[in-house]
Design brief:
two-stranded antiparallel sheet; 2 helices
């Protein structure tokens, strides 16, 4: 396996962070690389967000150019998708878009916000208290597909 990631610092990885993945390169060789955590949003999600913004502007009596708003809308992206039969994700289901994501633990938000902070709490999962290395399936997309990401990274790919 080829790698150029160097030593990886321990720590938690969150959306908009770089994470190690194993992918197969164009020559069929496995390589360990860093990828940006997050995928582009679906067109429906972007359209829904812009529709909400447009409605607020119209409520203030402003003219709205929906196409211009849609073009300017920053894409906050998505960090995971569970319905792989959904149209937006089908283009990344082919073998060349698949990868393995290395981790020692992962988290999911709880269903209900904390009554004090009004934020959904993170629940962390690991195989056991030692947090041994695990891998799980991921999908990756070329960086050029991910126009949304808020800060630039040198990574060539993003993942979910």
């Amino acid at each position: 396996m080829r790698t150029d990631v160097g030593n990886l610092e321990p720590g938690k990885v969150f959306p908009d962070y770089s994470a190690p993945i194993v992918r197969t390169d164009a020559d069929g060789e496995r390589e360990l690389v860093r990828a940006h955590w997050g995928m582009p949003s679906s067109q429906k999600a972007l359209t829904d967000t812009v529709s909400t913004r447009a409605d607020k502007l119209r409520a203030k009596g402003k003219d709205v150019d929906f196409a211009a708003l849609l073009k300017m809308e920053p894409d906050a992206g998505t960090t995971n998708f569970r319905n792989v039969s959904s149209a937006p994700w089908k283009r990344w289901l082919e073998p060349e878009s698949r990868c393995l994501v290395a981790a020692t633990s992962f988290s999911e938000y709880g269903p209900m916000p904390d009554p004090v902070t009004n934020k959904k709490p993170l629940h962390w999962f690991a195989l056991d208290k030692r947090e041994p290395l695990i891998v799980f399936a991921g999908m990756r997309a070329p960086w050029s597909e991910a126009k949304a990401l808020q800060r630039p990274f040198p990574d060539a790919h993003c993942l979910s």
